[in-house]
Amino acid sequence: MIEGWRGEALNLAEDSANEIHSDKVAKQFGFRGGLVPGVTISAYLIHPAVTTWGLDFLHRGYAHVRVSAPLYDGEPFAVDILEQSDSSYRAEITQADKISATAEVSLPELAPAAPTRRGDPVGDRSHKPTKATRAAFEQLKSDGCLAFRYRWREKNNEPYVQDIDAIPGLLRANGDGYANMNFLLGITNWVLSANAHMNPWMHLETKSQNYRAVAEGTSLIAEIIIADLTEKKGHEFVDAQINLFDEEDDTCVCAIELRAIYRLRGA
Fold it and tell me: What is the number of alpha carbons within 13 Å of residue 99 lying toward its C-beta?
């Protein structure tokens, strides 16, 4: 039985460079306050997969999450399982009775073939990204993006929910300390913004395929390509494919498709 859960949302990005997570800027765009990151909402929806399937999900699980409305810091949320089978479920997350996001999550018997590393040049933290415009993204789509390096250290990553005891033991230092989906999906935000400076912007949707659990201390290389650029109702969208590789052996640990609004209407 796959069970839903309850918790209090936590906005870890209030002081980030993406000011949609701050009260001041979020309110300028009609929100009640700073938005809890989309990757955190996704982690909440994927939580039942980790608690039910454990390490198997970290090795081969799949999730498709669509964010449609915000969660706000410190307020209770509910993840409800709408449909389920032995190897899949469909869920939604609500706050104040409003649906914030939906997810289809599954545990395939075998993961699809894993991507291979291209060997994109790896940027360093001194790199100054170009401003995110349609022309800039078209250039990145044509010429390619820089890869970036990220290291999973459980002790240096804050809990992504108010009650740390709600985090599965598999993901905590006093358990196995494997990387959680808030961190892995968060890399998509970091590597995209490292190539093109966006502020404010919104993470909307991810499709993620796990290939291997990420152990404490693992150095990851994130390679990214810009797949598509679109406009709808004044918002500018970017679709990107991000593959995460263990730097030690070039094994793909997770492949993620991201959709985001890089320029909000009126920005």
Answer: 12
